[in-house]
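From the thread on structure requests for the teaching lab: each student submitted one protein with a one-line request. Submission from student K.M.:

"Model ApaG domain-containing protein from Panicum miliaceum, tokens only."
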Amino acid sequence: MPSPAKRRPKLGHATPSALENLPPFALATVIARAGPRCAASLACASKTLRAAASSAEWWRRFCADDIGIDAPLDPEGRMLPSFQATYESWFRSFRMYPLPLVKRVKMFWTLLKSWLSEFFPDALETLAEGLSDTDIRIAEYDLGFQLPITTKLLYRFCNGQLCRNDLESCGIGGYEFYHEMVNVHLLPLKQAVEGAKLLRSDNGAIRRPNYIVVADSSFEEKTFLLDCLSGQLYVVTKNFKSDGEMMPCVPNSLIRLHTDNNDMPQDGLLLWLEAHLRKLQSGLIKAQIPNFRRDARHISLYPETPPTCSTAVTHGIKVRASAVFVPEDSSVHGDPCKYVYYYFIRVSLPDACIVDGKCYSSCQFQSCSLTIRTGNDVFHGDIEYGGLLLKDAPDEFKYGSYISVSKLPAGSLTFITSRRHQPDGNQFAVKISPFPLQPPAYVF
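Reply posted by the TA:
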């Protein structure tokens, strides 16, 4: 068996007979430190060493340490008689890949599926079964170039998302804007190959010979391209059709396709997906019900926690504000308003609204005023908007719009108290705390 995942000490010139004479604890320590390759060799040396090297305890540990599995299952999920058989099965199936990378990619998919199972089961059902190495080689032959090793492994464990009528709501993440939904889903490898062929044709953009389309949105033209030569993941901008403009989605310094030391290879697609998972696990982004489609849920990219989501409470009214960067409407060079953001202001009344010492169970939303300061310039935006805010309402009152200045906007909402759903009182202002508008390190 080739070298295992971690570097372990060699047995040196120790002979089987010398090892047989070791006390059980010492022998167990030697086997544990030597690793699965040496354990498999010792099992062929003598009956005594076979019994020690075949211990379920050690093979369970090897499986956990090297592959990240805690049950005797093969890569297809079938039960096996022992952890030793499990290790050998996984090793044979992924012999082309470094085991530490196999463990990392497997853990990513396991954790993502676990999150989806708990918070968004409908999206979990769209994830397709993984591909074989033969399937991937056929795709590479069709492309005329090889995929990065990490991308191959990602497709080994999951072949993107199945095409379904509700995929626009069951993608991996997006945002709503007015009555439109932008929601990105992962493409199966076959569609990634088909998209790559279109990139080579003359469609107005610069031809991309080493790119594949790994993710896109059902409606808006939001497309993510993986450069299989450099490993960087790109998203197209509004100028893509005219001049092929794209922007990187991952810091270049983190990408490693070929390593000469002990560093693990990692491309832009893996780093991007892992960053997305961290946002889900931390609660920064969540599965939400859209404003205009109440029968569906989606993973909303609008931040939910500080510092990218601000919170203020005035007169008992809670106001949360956050924004998402919109690369498909932005540009990289030459446009004075090159960065575009969608923002959401979410208002709720957890308890009573208190104005002039009086308590109200509802109030009327009348207008929104945003102030953006950039150096010595001040921009004002005022929007008239009507709506009734009720105490303990199950959903937040939401208002969204777009902006193209990378600063810290702040402002206020204007309300008037009401009784029995009718205005009753004077106007009062509710604070909108500053919320950041800046291109993120990872672009989604």
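TA comment: The CA atoms of residues 49 and 158 lie 39 Å apart. The longest strand covers residues 377-390.
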